[in-house]
Amino acid sequence: MLQSSRKMSSRVGIEDAASFNQSSGSNQTEADSWAPCRDYSIYPFLMVVYGLVFLIGSILNGFILKFYFCQAQQQASSTIMVYLKNLAAADFLLCLSIPLRITNYVSRSATVHLVHCNFGATAFYTNMYASILFMGFIAANRYLKIVRPRQTRVRQRVWAAHIVCTVTWVFLLTLMSAYIILSVHTQKPLTSIPNTLICELLHNDQHGLVLKFTHSCSAVIFLVVLISLLFFYYSTSRRVLLAQKKQPLSSSSTMLKKSHRNMLVLVSVFCFCFVPYHLVRLLHVFLSKNCTWSKVLHNLTELTVAVSVLNVCLDPLIYFIFCKAFRTQLTKRAVCTNP
């Protein structure tokens, strides 16, 4: 009786081990099948780009955050300052997630790859879309100031701006937490690093549905902000043209022209950084099944993601042109260092 139970338990153990090896083997085979459809020669260039962006972006956004918390607190807050502060915070957090992305390119460690897929990439894209939303809020604030300047009081708008920013962070962090939990829960057993570092191959089919939902939400956020920015720019352009026709040499017309120029800078930075990545993502939906196109799209995706990260270096320009107190502070420092 004891001998038969031992045989039965050993048989169960062998079957469990076989099923685990089969699962890991299928995962490895699936990854190997994608190997010819990936080109990693671009990774050294990307590591250099990300390294420079990390250094420059961390310094610039760290300085801006220091300015806001040390200097701007002495002055009355405004809606534009609230949005600019949150934009700088999102950019700084995005910078902090870049080293893990660089490490994932270099390392062959399974632990590093899993941490990047489950946590690093999630934090990376969460802060990217936080930047997109806050740029949209800044544009909306400028639009209301130019087109409808007397609709609300300053205190009410500042109070509303704090609520909008809080709701935005809660929404994004909730999605981020849910995605991380589901990623860990749906993760396949992995005994060795696959030849292709594809995060999607580490999870089962349930994760694929979550990924599609996440991509859909991201696409909706981008499109809403893009359409809003174009509408705001068009509306402010019309407002400036009307003011120039009525009073071309007035001070109000000059201020409107300046605000219109600032809006153009904001829209230009947004389109330069984020439009290429989302266009490639759209192509990826339709052409990713073809191996030849998949290799091209993989490189384009990696390049356009790197371009989108450049916003952490370009957003300080937005802070400079929209925040008079920041410009004054920089001018004072320049005068002190160059007497």
TrEMBL record:
<feature type="transmembrane region" description="Helical">
    <location>
        <begin position="160"/>
        <end position="182"/>
    </location>
</feature>
<feature type="transmembrane region" description="Helical">
    <location>
        <begin position="122"/>
        <end position="140"/>
    </location>
</feature>
<keyword id="KW-0472">Membrane</keyword>
<keyword id="KW-0812">Transmembrane</keyword>
<keyword id="KW-1133">Transmembrane helix</keyword>
<feature type="transmembrane region" description="Helical">
    <location>
        <begin position="42"/>
        <end position="68"/>
    </location>
</feature>
<dbReference type="InterPro" id="IPR000276">
    <property type="entry name" value="GPCR_Rhodpsn"/>
</dbReference>
<feature type="domain" description="G-protein coupled receptors family 1 profile">
    <location>
        <begin position="60"/>
        <end position="319"/>
    </location>
</feature>
<dbReference type="InterPro" id="IPR017452">
    <property type="entry name" value="GPCR_Rhodpsn_7TM"/>
</dbReference>
<protein>
    <submittedName>
        <fullName>P2Y purinoceptor 14-like</fullName>
    </submittedName>
</protein>
<keyword id="KW-0807">Transducer</keyword>
<dbReference type="GO" id="GO:0045028">
    <property type="term" value="F:G protein-coupled purinergic nucleotide receptor activity"/>
</dbReference>
<feature type="transmembrane region" description="Helical">
    <location>
        <begin position="213"/>
        <end position="234"/>
    </location>
</feature>
<feature type="transmembrane region" description="Helical">
    <location>
        <begin position="263"/>
        <end position="283"/>
    </location>
</feature>
<feature type="transmembrane region" description="Helical">
    <location>
        <begin position="80"/>
        <end position="102"/>
    </location>
</feature>
<dbReference type="GO" id="GO:0005886">
    <property type="term" value="C:plasma membrane"/>
</dbReference>
<keyword id="KW-0297">G-protein coupled receptor</keyword>
<comment type="similarity">
    <text>Belongs to the G-protein coupled receptor 1 family.</text>
</comment>
<keyword id="KW-1003">Cell membrane</keyword>
<feature type="transmembrane region" description="Helical">
    <location>
        <begin position="303"/>
        <end position="323"/>
    </location>
</feature>
<keyword id="KW-0675">Receptor</keyword>
<dbReference type="Pfam" id="PF00001">
    <property type="entry name" value="7tm_1"/>
</dbReference>
